[in-house]
Amino acid sequence: MKKVVLWINSFLLCFIVSLFVLNFYAFNRGFYSAEFSKNGVYEKMPEADAMAGDLAGYFLGKEKLAFAGSYSAEELIHLADVKALFFREFLVFSAVLVLFAALMIFQYLIGGKLSRTVVLGSIIGLAVSAILSVVAVFFDSSFVAFHKLLFSNSYWLLPEGSTLITLFPRQFFVDFFVSVIVLKLAISAAMLALCLGLRYRRQIRKYINKIAEYNKK
To answer: How many domains does one find in the chain?
Structure first.
């Protein structure tokens, strides 16, 4: 039972970190501004920051877009699909958080070591980051497969020059995907290092003391 709960919690932890990182960049105004500058979006759309903020509010529950007139009918349908997707993602994220908390309490009550969950979850996170790095090499085909999997229509296939394509060119999504991988990798590595450091702190302290004593000679 302990091992089963350990593995379930470890995968849940990895999943939670993944969704956290995804949402961090999806609603990170600083990231958007940096990408708009990098991709020359401001030259074409000076109001890009306001439009990005409008989209963020819409995805978070706002009923209508203030810049709705800037988008075509197809773009508005796609944006509604994306909003519905974020809504489902938030529900899943909330449910997984509750389940993870409950299972962590259960794991503690049955005598399981919670630190093992963090260690194993971090290792799984590092493995997932490595897999995503390979996927990034085949970004274009992965991007198409991702949209076909998540959307039941083809409104995401927008023409060059459309408002959404101008705001969010291909390079935006490449940088978004790479940033998600890097941050997930960094968080997983930090959690693993912290747990291992705490677990072996006595041995590490003894080793440091030995080095200090050696240097004094």
So the answer is: 1
How far apart are alpha carbons 120 and 101 in whole angstroms? 16
Query: What's this model's pTM, rounded to 2 decimal places?
Result: 0.87
Distance of alpha carbon 99 from alpha carbon 6, whole angstroms: 13
Could you identify the residue written with the tokens 């600083």?
A: 30
Note down the domain range covering 196.
2-216
pLDDT, tens digit only, all 217 positions of the chain: 888 999 999 999 999 999 999 999 999 999 999 999 999 999 999 999 999 999 999 999 999 999 999 999 999 999 999 999 999 999 999 999 999 999 999 998 998 888 899 999 999 999 999 999 999 999 999 999 999 999 989 999 999 999 999 999 999 999 999 999 999 999 999 999 988 877 766 665 655 555 555 555 5
Q: How many CB atoms lie within 10 A of CB 25?
A: 16
Alpha helices (H) along 110-217: 114-137, 139-150, 163-167, 170-199, 201-216
